[in-house]
Amino acid sequence: MFFRIVTESFRRQRRRKVIAITALMLGTSVAVAMLNITLNIGDKINQELKAFGANLLIVPKGEALPLEIGGEDLRQLRAEDYLPESELPKIKEIFWRNNILAFAPVLDTSVSLRGRTVKMVGTWFSRPVQFDGGSAVTGVRHLNSFWKVDGAWIDESREPPQALIGQALAKALQIKPGDTIEIEQRNRPEPFVVTGLLTTGGAEDDQVFTTLAAVQKLTHRAGQIKRVLVSALTTPESKVYERLGRTARDLSPEEFERWYCTPLVSSIAFQLSQVFPTAEVKPLRQVVESEGKILDKMSLMMALISALALAASALAVMSTMMTMVLERQTEIGLMKAIGSSNGQVVGLFLAEAFIMGIMGGIMGCGVGVLLARLIGGVVFGSSIAPKLMTLPLALIAAEVIALIGCAAPARKLLGFHPVEILRNA
Question: Each residue of 357-367: pLDDT tens digit?
Fold first, then answer.
């Protein structure tokens, strides 16, 4: 009899049930979409942020050590240290090699251009690199994809060597793409062909960029580099390690293994320092901290959107269930008059809510996965992979919403008196 009454209620109040199930589906779908995006958002946002440059810097150990006498910084008087260019493929041989998105070596020097002292930067632009286990193409074009060039990028195989001129410097010296300029160092002019004007919005707009080999030749530093910029895909640094100021030496073997096998910026820096024993790897903290803050704010925003969607769904279910209770007063009065207890009557509505929760949860999960893929394609340019854990969570959320929506109607049911209902019927 109980199941027959439940079945009949779905047949007779089909429109109300559809409204309630739709509300559950919409609320659950938004929550599922936000959950799927949250579970994938770390890598997606990190990949977007990596377009804006490096988050790790490799420099010779001597350059990183302070040199002070009597409170005066004397590092500029120290002999410069360099790193071997031949060791660069080791960057892609660490445990987290697949998280190394791009890197670029740098060797810079001061030169004279049309009577003006400027900084000339030698680097890789787009260079294939062979390493144990594969190959990759890297350089500043992959490291700083936000850089804009009016003209053409440098072709590292061309002679005479080519150069990119920062747009501010080019404007001041009236240089345009196609011009041949003479770079002087130690009163020795070297010709360079300008292929394009570089715009970054930073200090690079007043600099000259060319191939690493060209600057090595100018400075007589064959096979040497000054520093390496590295862009790595990382997860936000552990708050526990940050708060305690812990390093690899302070960790127990179990903690060290967990830390080493997590792509934190500190663990990747540690692994790079192992393959570069003569160098110091420094995380660019401002970049790393900005990434963490953005991820935290995005996750909080997703949680708030989910909470608001679920709250709105609960209110819609509550309103619909209350209407259904009022429409069925006579039926409820008859049930109580023939001996049904308050628990049995409330159980009837809870059973209906349970069934609606399952239906709304299943449909909401499917719609949520599609919504997450749509958002991923529009915002990140790639699909959001659905997580299996979202299905049980969606069903639980839908059931909780449905049962919360029944709270007020259930209290209303407990206050019904069969005599009064049947007298007014």
Answer: 888 888 888 88
